[in-house]
């Protein structure tokens, strides 16, 4: 059976940790989330074997703390496992939160040819570490990463944002001039808009999230062209 009793429980060093998303890697779960270390939230990836035990060939005994660059904390919120790579989306915090994308090898090692030592931090303030704010991730057939979240605008409100990132770790210059595309001002709305997840379809991208209507939040699905100009 799976981990003897059908349930895998990871007793982390600090005792405070959680998973936010998972995908399959070589027929076994790979989960991402965060744990507290030294009073700071650290982005975490954990790989299991098909029988449920930690995969010793992944990272440090089955666990990887993702690099933070110059930030001090962060959280991994979404994961996609490809044929030869792992992409993880979330946020890092250097006093303000920013959307982040990590690329790892299947062994958990950061891809040093992607971004800065495996980490790409996207411009703009995206307070993803608060209630009902996620980071969505999808990968298209050309290996480009699509992300959605929210960004603070000049007025201090949040706009739904979509980025497209090339496999090299650079923003795609053919997508909104290097992106992101931001969307706000839904009918009846006058405040925050946020994208929590996205899916790619023939000729379109759908983004699910929420919008503030002036008194509370409404659920929203946006349908965008694959090359929006807004």
Protein described:
- By secondary structure, the chain is an all-beta fold.
- It has two domains: 1-121, no CATH class; 130-230, no CATH class.
- 0% of the residues lie in helices and 47% in strands.
- The chain contains no helices and 15 strands.
- Strands 1-2-3-4 form a four-stranded antiparallel β-sheet, with no helix packed on it.
Quick structural overview:
The protein is mainly beta and 230 residues long. Helices cover 0% and strands 47% of the residues. The strands form 4 sheets. It has a 4-stranded antiparallel beta sheet, with no helix packed on it. Strands 5-6-7-8 form a 4-stranded antiparallel beta sheet, with no helix packed on it. It has a 4-stranded antiparallel beta sheet with strand order 9-10-11-12, with no helix packed on it.
Supply the key terms.
Delta_60_rpt; 15 strands; mainly beta; four-stranded antiparallel β-sheet
Helix/strand order, N-terminal first = EEEEEEEEEEEEEEE
The strand line-up of the biggest sheet is 1-2-3-4
Describe the global form: globular
Total count of domains? 2
Q: What fraction strand? A: over 45%
Content-based structural category:
mainly beta
List low-pLDDT spans. none
Mean pLDDT: 90
Count of helical stretches = 0
What is the total tally of β strands? 15
> What percentage of residues falls in helices of 4 or more residues?
under 10%
Largest sheet: 4 strands, antiparallel
Cα radius of gyration in angstroms: 18 Å
Terminus-to-terminus distance: 51 Å
InterPro entries: Delta_60_rpt
């Amino acid at each position: 059976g799976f981990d003897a009793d059908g349930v895998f429980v990871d007793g982390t060093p600090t005792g405070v940790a959680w998973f936010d998303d998972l995908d399959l890697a070589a027929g076994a779960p790979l989960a991402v989330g965060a744990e507290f270390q030294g009073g700071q939230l650290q982005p975490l990836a954990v790989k299991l074997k098909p029988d449920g035990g930690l995969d010793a060939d992944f990272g440090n005994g089955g666990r990887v703390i993702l690099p933070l660059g110059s930030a001090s904390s962060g959280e991994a919120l979404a994961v996609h496992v490809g044929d030869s790579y792992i992409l993880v989306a979330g946020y890092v915090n250097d006093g303000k939160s920013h959307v982040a994308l990590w690329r790892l090898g299947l062994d958990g090692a950061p891809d040093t040819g992607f971004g800065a030592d495996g980490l790409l931090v996207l411009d703009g303030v995206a307070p993803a570490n608060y209630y009902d704010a996620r980071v969505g991730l999808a990968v298209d057939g050309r290996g480009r990463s699509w992300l959605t979240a929210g960004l603070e605008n000049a007025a201090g409100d949040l706009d739904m944002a979509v980025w497209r990132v090339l496999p090299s770790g650079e923003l795609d210059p053919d997508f909104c001039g290097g992106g992101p595309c931001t969307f706000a001002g839904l009918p009846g709305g006058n405040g925050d808009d946020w994208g929590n997840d996205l899916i790619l379809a023939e000729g379109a991208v759908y983004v699910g999230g929420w919008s503030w209507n002036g008194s509370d939040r409404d659920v929203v699905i946006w349908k965008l062209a694959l090359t929006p100009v807004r």
